[in-house]
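Tokenised fold entry reproduced for absentees:

. . .
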Amino acid sequence: MPEIVLINITGNDRPGLTAQLAETLAPYGVTLLDMGQAVIHDFLSLGILIEIPDASRSSSVLKDILFAAHRLGLQARFTPIDEQRYEAWVEQPQSERRIITLLGRRITAAPLARVARALADNGLNIETITRLSRRLSLSRPGEAAHACIQMSASGTLADPDSLRGRLLSISEETGIDISFHLDTIYSRNRRLVVFDMDSTLIQAEVIDILASRAGAGEQVARITEEAMQGKIDFRESLIRRVALLRGLPESVLAEVAAGLQLTEGAERVAATLKSLGYKLGIISGGFDYFGRRLQKRLGFDYLFANRLEIENGLLTGRLEGDIIDGPRKAEILKTIAMVENISLEQTIAVGDGANDLPMLHTAGLGVAFHAKPKVRANADQAISSLGLDGLLYLMGIAEQETRLG
């Protein structure tokens, strides 16, 4: 009668260990039923579930593995699995799998403990844990600006909204960003990423800078803040703010554009995603004069933004064409996806303001970036502790795979 045995191997890792262990098993014709391996700080943990055929004696197989492990400086442990238990495992329905990502400048055990407890309390079992950020140097503590741990957990979740709310509370209390989403074929095959511009790709609200140059800074700042908080309609607020720019020389636009600073991580995000074949777009309620320069600098494929009307070298205080507001942003995202022949589930949208929410809700993954509390609470995911390159971690891209360091 065939025997089923779980073999656990642990010890210091080095090249060739798995090969030598597999070569030890090969002459016995065993069937591999399951296998998993992880290496942490050069320490190997390997699990192999095998079926030993009738023609082979389990004692001989296990003895040879034990000798091989000893010769290699490893420890081996064997657990017999009865056939009934194995078949019950085979017949178990495949549980939904969720991806949980912790982001921060530095991650301690406290937030990890709270997240793990929240998952366990909701019936989810953590199956894998992976570090996506670079190794942390203790002698050069300021060198590593990012820390990211990603977990996959399986199980039946009765109330996803309740768990999401609990994770949001943990995030707010610890200062660690916590992403939580269902692992699907779409989440592993994103193809389009679109960004808001002001306070997302660049570190400013351009209209506030222009208003300051026009002598209307305080008036426009009040309207901008109300719009970002969702207290007034974005379309109306934009018309009112642009009207206050009337008479501003066009030359001021070039001066402002030259002084704009990219958000931390913007260049890394753009370079990495472009190298991986993603299509990138800017969908902004800001102005295309500045968007065009940003598009050229970062190599984006698409740009949609509002256009300032200029006559005789002066701003008229009006906009040309349709206004790009929240609902329009969502429609533009749908159009780009259709042009690129991809599903909306394969898209990602990133923004910081209330007018970005329709776009964030339309995308397969919506990310609130350093957003106001209302926006953060209503977005799928949020990044508040890192720069824009934190998005790469949410996408499962390890730091060694990124561009520009």
